[in-house]
Amino acid sequence: MNAPIVIPKELIELGDDIRYIRLKTGEHDPEERKRPKDSGWTRGTGGRFANDKALLEWVKKGHNYGYHAVGGNICIFDCDDTLYDPSLISLFDNTLTIKTGRGYHFLFKSYLPDNEKFILDSPAGHIGHILTPGMKFQTVGPNCIHPNGGRYVIVRNFPLTWIPASLIMQHISNYVSIPDETTPVEPPKIPRHISSCARLPIGDVLGLRVEDIGYPNGNIRQHGLELQGVHPFHGSSRGNKGDNYCINPTNGVWCCFRCNSGGDATMLLAVKHGVISCSEAKKGALDDQATYTKLLDIIRHGGEGQYLADKLIEYETKQKEEHFKKKDDELKCVDLSGLLNIIREKQTPIVTTDTLPDYVLSIPGVLQDVVSYYNATAAKPQPQIAVQTAIAIGAVILGRRWFTNEDNGSSMYLAVVAKSSAGKEHIKTVIERVLHASDNGKLIGPPGYTSAGGIASALFKQPNHIAIIDEFGRLLESTNKSGNSNQMDAITGMLQVYGRQTGIYSPPGYSDISNIRKSKRRRDQDEDVCLDIHRPAITILGITTPSTLYDSMSSSYISNGFFPRFVTVDSIYGRQVSRRRNLQDQRISDRLISWCYENARAHGGEGDLDNVYGPQFYPTPITVPFSEGAYDLLEAYEEEYQKYQDANEHSGLDVMWGRCRENVQRLSLIVAVSCGAYIIKAEHVSWAIAYVKFYSERMIKIVGGNVSDTNFEATKKSVFAAIEAAGKDGLTLSEISKRCRKYEGLETRMRASVIDAVVSDYGVGILPSPSQRGRRRIAYALNKYLPEEDAN
Prior knowledge:
By secondary structure, this protein is an alpha+beta fold. The protein folds into four domains: about 10-170, Prim-pol fold (2-Layer Sandwich); about 190-305, DNA Primase, Chain A (Alpha-Beta Complex); about 370-510 and about 530-620, Rossmann fold, CATH 3.40.50.300; about 710-790, Arc Repressor Mutant, subunit A, CATH 1.10.10. About 35% of the residues lie in helices and about 15% in strands. The strands form seven sheets. A six-stranded antiparallel β-sheet has the order 6-7-3-5-4-9, with no helix packed on it. Strands 10-11-12-13-14 form a five-stranded antiparallel β-sheet, covered by helices on one side.
């Protein structure tokens, strides 16, 4: 049986200075085993890390992998023939050596110039080449299979030795052709691959011309359509006699013969401003988004004059308008059917009075195992709450250790609203079981906070934790009561912590008069304790009933931004009969336990920082960037909800949309890591937008009809909501009493005032009684259900 293909520890120990590439399977041609399957690895410091899941799965299946150095002065000598110069090979006797199918790979360290490839040739034939960090060439890794059927094997298991660059250059000088700028016998022409290169669109938009950006210096000579002379930016070693640079104004291209580089006017502009070096000016050099954006920033801020800056801004503004218009239309019909790559277990369908889209009942990635476990173990199924449970677990597991490139942490404020006896308590059970099973019980925080000092104390002990607050509505209700300043301070503390995930949370100052009055000797014994918490991460999960929450909801909780920070799920699944369960057959999946354990201990630095958990100490975070497609969707969504904000500004509900993008970005991070991705893709943001948008719009509609600052106003809205729900049949006064507890508790005169206010403010009237014997039925309904003469 063939030995498995594995990445050896000798390469893994080199850390992030080595990146990896999946190679092709070689099914059709054995030589393909040396060719990359992955794309994009040549950009910047591209390639996969050693712990990349896709890479490990690929290697596990017996497929080859390649590697290349991106830093650390790591060089690779790929030597195909070692018989003719023992003195050269002797330099590498004490470094990591890998036997290939027809030679050796020597890995060593040296101060050789980055991004250089030294080709060694002799009259007898090709010897090999030396690759330095940054070269866009990969090398087949140890333990892989050579096209001839042999193996790449480590034969010298030594650490990478340091070899002086001067010593290497001394030995290879006879085999390397160093670039020379002597005048050629025939005038050089711009190579065909440069003269026929594709033009970057921005060059045509701005009307860039190579002759304006970089005209040759020195003694200029003309050969047909081409002008040749000294390079205008890095010059020539021969001074004014040099001829290492050529432009063709007619075709709009240029070429540097020293660096073997060239391109169009945009590429030359990048060289001029140092965005890329002249040697990097080759096909694909500006494909990297960061590099291209840097060049546009220079133009936008006047680097090439105000005229081009204005022209670029005008073009970008027009592009954005068209882009957002297109994205706005696309966002309305986002298809998420292919995103949720999961297998849902067959369950007994639950009959509801409403319908829900599929994307709010599942979550992409490993966290779907939480949803499956919740649904399998709940006595009373609540699929919406199951997804909210998965989000809460993901939020606290990634807290303090995972961030986006926009400084979004994973901690979220979540709420669950369901009727009493609907089974919402199971959410706490599932969270505790999953966290304890993955050895993360320390992340379970207090069941609430009584003051700002309580928040500071909890964070001091647990800088990252989840607070599951039962009867969340009663918390708001008690805060409304006069004199409960401590509870109001707790609300203010929660508001502050939400935005401090990358900063410092400092608790309010308290009186220290008792300590001041102590004797000097006693004061000297007391040590000041710093209560500043760096990168605080609280995930809040509030659980409440509809009546408790909405009856206590006042406009202050909206205007101060407290309620808009929450992603609130109002379950449409009511009370249900408990079902039979065989809990012995239900267990938390191993992959979920492993995911929680590993990601709660992950960090972007070196060493084992699992125990770094103090308030002033935090691990180096892992940054997961947004892709361009993700940014497009985020911008389109923000454009969309800003229209709703403008339309609802008069009512004060515009604040409800204020945290939508922030919540989407945090949720996108959770989903991306759940899917094992190292970049937040458009599909992750699509799901997050759909989820947040669905529940935010649903909650805004509910809150708009329940927010009240007085008991009278709250009762009036409650009565109107009941009449509206009754439809064309309307409600009598006795029926209103049965459905509205607030109305039922009023005295007779106040009841009449409420009914009068509902009739005048909300367009409600009395239904005409049908012509029949017996007691007349006086019912109230919306005007649209009344005959026209009664409605008027």
